[in-house]
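Progress against Task 2.4 (sequence-to-structure conversion) is shown through the following example record, which the project officer requested during the mid-term review.
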Amino acid sequence: MTLKKSNSTQTNPTPLLKNAEQMSRLSGIGENKLREMMENREIEFVQNGNRRLLADQAIWDWYNRNKTPVVIPQPVKAVSPERYRGEAR
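Structure tokens generated for the chain above:
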């Protein structure tokens, strides 16, 4: 009897809640920083026994609260030479 090879690949679904190690790999924020933010209540988490679990949305909420907005520089107006009369160069 021969066995047929299956073409389907099994994928593990991404968990809805992640621990600090898993979230660190996904978000690029260090594990210790995530734990520090949870300790200081800067980021939402779910306490499940001794485990603290984070949702992806918690990272985006933190990001939106703490991001630095882009400042678009305004063009500089040219000053005519007459305005510099009498000034030492």
